[in-house]
Amino acid sequence: MSTAPLHTEPDHLVITAPTLKSGMVWVEQCLGVSMAPRIGGQHVRLGTHNALLSLGEAFYLEVITIDPNADAPERPRWFGMDQLGKDAAPRLAHWVARTSDIAAAVAASPVSPGVIEPMSRGALDWLITIATDGALACEGVMPSLIQWLSQPHPASALPDRGCRLQQLILEHPAAQELQVAWKAIGLADARIVLKEGKQASLHAVVSTPHGERVLG
Fold first, then answer.
1. In the chain, fewer beta carbons within 10 Å around the N or the C end?
2. CA-to-CA dists, residue 35 to 54, 207, 211, angstroms
3. Three-class SS of residue 161?
């Protein structure tokens, strides 16, 4: 059994939207940077598809929506997407953290990030935590955990549009419990700011060629 300490770090931001077009337009309006031409693909197992934008080395932004051309999955979709209304506004709903040992991280965390599920898209293969009901852990503030099984990291295939995450500002009533969970899984990043708040919220401060912009 490995005794190496767990190491977990931010991997990507998750933007949910009713359609890829509306999500991509919203990102462009927020950041002043186009996501066209779309780079992404289908998640056949869960009936979703996405578009990606680089936020630097080994980090990216994902717009994810229900794929209207896909069959409905046999289980709830991830990221709370089955509860997303057709008129819902695009938003920063969640984030995903990359870990060195997803099984050990799930076992160590006192706050459940979900159940480990195998996923694939094209040449990419990974393990990710998903709640059995598809809901977002702690309303999106507790990250899903991911362990990439394929190389290179998907961000390496994305064009550099000059965008970088500066801060991910999170609020939640159970902030202290979340801090304990993050320490247990080896998650410590100066860009992640967690505060106690009356309700859950997520905001990302991103530097762009047009200055700092905020996604929320």
1. N
2. 9, 16, 17
3. coil
The reply to whether CATH 3.90.1150.10 applies to domain 8-215 is no
Only one residue has tokens 């709830």, namely: 76
Under DSSP, the state recorded for 165 is E
Beta bridge partner(s), residue 63: 15, 51
Digit-by-digit pLDDT tens for the chain (216 residues) are 456 789 999 999 999 999 999 999 999 999 999 999 999 999 999 999 999 999 999 999 999 999 999 999 999 999 999 999 989 999 999 999 999 999 999 999 999 999 999 999 999 999 999 999 999 999 999 999 999 999 999 999 999 999 999 999 999 999 999 999 999 999 999 999 999 999 999 999 999 999 999 999
Q: Token pair of 110, please?
A: 């006192």
Domain boundaries along the sequence of the chain: 8-215
Three-class DSSP category at 72: coil
For residue 115, the cross-strand partners are 130
